[in-house]
Design brief:
Largest sheet: none
Shape: globular
Number of strands: 0
Oligomer: single chain
Number of helices: 4
Order of helices and strands: HHHH
Length: 111
C-alpha cells in the first residue's frame, strides 16, 4: 500500500472533521494520540527489555502499535493538507543530505 492511499483510507475512520485551527480539539486530539501511541510502543519495548532480556516475543503487538502511530501521523498530515508521501520524500531528502555531508549523527534539526 502506498502512503497516500493509506492516508485517504485512514481519514475515513477519523471521528472529527478537518480543523481550521491548531487549537481545535480535533487537531489537539491527534497530537496527543500520536504521543500516546508512541509511548505505548516505547512501553512495550521497555517491557521486552525488562522481562524478556530484549528478545522480541510478540512482533504482532509491536506492529499494531506502529499502525496506531502511523494512523495519527497520517491524520496530522491530513489536517495540515500535506500528503504523507510528501512528508516521507522530504525526510529522505533531508537524511540523504546529512549523509552526504557526513552529519547523520549529532543533534539539531538543521545540521
Amino acid at each position: 500500500m502506498q502512503f497516500d492511499e493509506y492516508q485517504k483510507l485512514a481519514a475515513r475512520t477519523d471521528a472529527f472533521s478537518k480543523p481550521d485551527s491548531l487549537l481545535d480539539p480535533a487537531f489537539l486530539e491527534k497530537v496527543l494520540g500520536l504521543v500516546g501511541e508512541s509511548g505505548e510502543f516505547a512501553d512495550k519495548i521497555k517491557k521486552l527489555i525488562r522481562d524478556q532480556n530484549g528478545e522480541i516475543t510478540d512482533k504482532d503487538e509491536l506492529v499494531k502499535e506502529l499502525g496506531d502511530v502511523l494512523w495519527y501521523l497520517a491524520m496530522i498530515a491530513n489536517y495540515l493538507d500535506v500528503d504523507l508521501s510528501a512528508v516521507a520524500k522530504e525526510n529522505i531528502a533531508k537524511l540523504a543530505d546529512r549523509q552526504k555531508r557526513n552529519i547523520i549523527k549529532g543533534a539539531g534539526d538543521n545540521r
